[in-house]
Amino acid sequence: MAPPPAASPRSGRPLRVALVGLGPKGLFALERLLDRVGDAPVDVVAYEPHPTPGAGPVYDPAQPDWLRMNNAARHVDLWWPGNATVPAAERRSFVAWDGGRHGGGDAFVPRAVVGRYLADGLATLLRHAGPVTTVRVVRARVGQVVPAGAGWRVVAEDGAGAVHDEVLLATGHARPRDPRDPGLAGLPVPVVPAVFPVGDRLGGDAVPDGAVVALRGFALTAIDAALALTEGRGGRFVPGTGRRLRYVAGADGVGALVPFSRTGLPMVAKPDPAPHPGTEALDVVGETGRELVASLPGRSVDAVDGLRAAVAATATAALLAVGAPGDPAMVAVHPAVAPAGPATPTPVRTAGGATAARLAASLDVAVGLRPPGADWALGHAWRALYPAVVDRFGGTALDAAGWVAFRALAADLERIAFGPSAENVAKVLALAEAGVLDLDHVDGALLTRAAGDVVVRSGAGERRVDVVVDAVLPGPGVPPGDDGPLAGLVATGAAHRPPGRRGVDVDAAGGCRDAAGRPVPGLSVVGRPTEDVVVGHDTLSRTLHRQADGWARRVAARAREHATLPPAGPEATRTPVGDPA
C-alpha cells in the first residue's frame, strides 16, 4: 500500500482543494465548503469533463424533455438548510426557481430542466464566494489521483496535473471507457454498450429504423431507452381512457423492443401525491416506523429480520390509515418481506400478460383509480423509513451475513418504492398495447445464438433480434472494469473497499480510511463511490446524507489553521491542467 501523505507543512498560501467531479454531489459539497470557509483563503479547482458543471451527464440540459425525473419536483432543492453565504431570496428551491412552468411541485419534470436549475445554482453560488476564495472549473476527465508529498497530485487524462492539499472525489455515475458487459461480447450483431447520452448511443446509425432490439434490463434505464427509440424517433403518446395513453408511431422507429432481465419483475408506478383519502395520517405512520428502525438491535441477519418486520408493520399501518383494511394480510405474504425459509413461496415466473397486468394495476393505484394494495403499502413504507434505514444500516452496522440479507431486502423493496412515474408506466403500457414492446420474454430469458442468428429465448419461445442495447447501469461503488481514479486508489491501498461492499470506506465526513481503518489525510469521497458504506445515493436530497457538510467543516477548519501559518516559500509543484470552463 502507498503510505498516506504526511500532515501538511506550515505554509502561508491558501489551502488548495480539488473537486474531482462537479455534478450534483460535487456541487453540493462546494456549496457547503463556500458556506463554511468564511474568510479563510481557499483555492478550489473543480475537474469536470461535462460541458455543464453542476448538472453533469445525468441532468444534461441538452437531453430531450421526455427523459424525466422519477421523483416529484417538490423534492429538489440544492441549498443546504441554513446556508448563510447566499441571500435567502437567491436560495430558491426548484419549484420556486421554475415558477410553475413545468407543472408545479407534484410534477415529474424533465431532467434537462433540473440540470439548468443546478447550473444556475452553481452560478449563484460562485457570485457569492468570499473575497479570498477562488474557484476554477477545469474541463477535464481525471485519470489518476496519486500521493505527492504532503498532498495529492490530480492528473488529467492528457497528463497535465496539479498538487492539492485536499482532494474530494465525487464522480457519481462515471462509467468505464468501454462499459460493455462481458456476457454480450462476441455476438454477431451490433451491441450498444450504454444508453446515455441517448443522442449519441441510440441514434439511427447505432440502432437502425425497423430493427428488432433486445433490451438488457427492465428498470428505469430500459424505459428511457424504449422512449428514445420510439418517442425520440417521432412517435407520439396521445390520451386514452382514464390515465392511459395510446401510442402513435412516427415515420421512423424500431420494429420492436424485446426486454429481458434477471428477475423479470417490473418496477411499479410511483404514486401521485395523496391519491387516496386519509393520506394525511401517513406522516404519523412514517414517524412511528422510523423510530422503530432506529431502535433495532443487532448486527447480523437478526437486525435485517427486524427491519423486514418494521417495513411490514409500517405498510400494514399505512393501508389501515387510508381505509384499506381488507388488504393488510397480503403484506405479510408479499415476497419482498415474507420471512425467509421453506414457508416462503417461490416467486412465480411471469408471462408478458402478467407483467403488463401488474404494471396496469400499479398505474391505477398510483393515480387513485384502484384502492391501494400490498405493493403500494410496501413502497410507501420503504420511502417513509428510508432516512432511518440510511442512518441505521450504513457503515459497519452489519456483519457480512447481515449485509447480504440487507442487500437482498433492499433490492426487492427499491423495485416497489423507487419506480417510474405514473406517466412513464402509462407509456410502457401503450407501447406494449401497440405491439412495439414485446413483454413475452421479460422474465427468465436468455440471449443466445440460433442458426447464425441472435435470439431472446424464454419459456414463451424465442425472438430473433438485430441489435442488443445494454440498458443496465454499472453498479455504484467501484464497479468491475472501472478505469477511473478511484480504481487506482483502491489498487494501491490508498482507498479501501471493505469485503462484501461495493464502495470505498469513509468516515462520517467522507474521509477515506485504509484497510486498517486509519484515516488517509487529504483524501475524501462522497456519493455513489461510497455505496454500501453509506447507503442510498441515487437522490438529489440534501438532507439524507451529511458527509458533504462534515467534509466542508473539516476542510474549512484546516483552511483557517492554514491561513495563520507562515509562508512555506515558492510553490513549485503546480502545473496548469486546462482553461477554466
From TrEMBL:
<dbReference type="InterPro" id="IPR038732">
    <property type="entry name" value="HpyO/CreE_NAD-binding"/>
</dbReference>
<dbReference type="InterPro" id="IPR052189">
    <property type="entry name" value="L-asp_N-monooxygenase_NS-form"/>
</dbReference>
<feature type="domain" description="FAD-dependent urate hydroxylase HpyO/Asp monooxygenase CreE-like FAD/NAD(P)-binding">
    <location>
        <begin position="18"/>
        <end position="173"/>
    </location>
</feature>
<dbReference type="InterPro" id="IPR036188">
    <property type="entry name" value="FAD/NAD-bd_sf"/>
</dbReference>
<dbReference type="Pfam" id="PF13454">
    <property type="entry name" value="NAD_binding_9"/>
</dbReference>
<feature type="region of interest" description="Disordered">
    <location>
        <begin position="560"/>
        <end position="581"/>
    </location>
</feature>
<protein>
    <submittedName>
        <fullName>Unannotated protein</fullName>
    </submittedName>
</protein>
